[in-house]
Amino acid sequence: MNGNQAAVTTTEHKIGKTTYFICSSASEKATDTLDKKIKKLIRKDLEQNAGNAHK
Asked: Which end of the chain has fewer CB atoms < 10 Å from its terminal CB, N or C?
């Protein structure tokens, strides 16, 4: 790995029957914790799926 690439970590999160695979890498500029980021991603996914359920 050269100096421009960060190590990538993959984490599996199961919520009900849905499995989320989260790929992450560290950033010195990041302001959110991993926990906050995952919650935002899940919330966004739920909002999008709720919108699609009405169609």
From this structure: C
Count CB-CB contacts under 10 A for residue 41.
Answer: 13
Q: Which residue has the tokens 């790995």?
A: 1
pLDDT above 70 coverage of the chain, percent:
84
Give the range of the structural domain holding residue 40, as residue numbers without chain letter. Answer: 8-53
Write out the H or E segment, with its range, that includes residue 9: strand 8-15
pLDDT at 2 over 60: no
Predicted TM-score (pTM) of this structure = 0.44
Q: Are 49 and 42 in contact (CB under 8 A)?
A: no
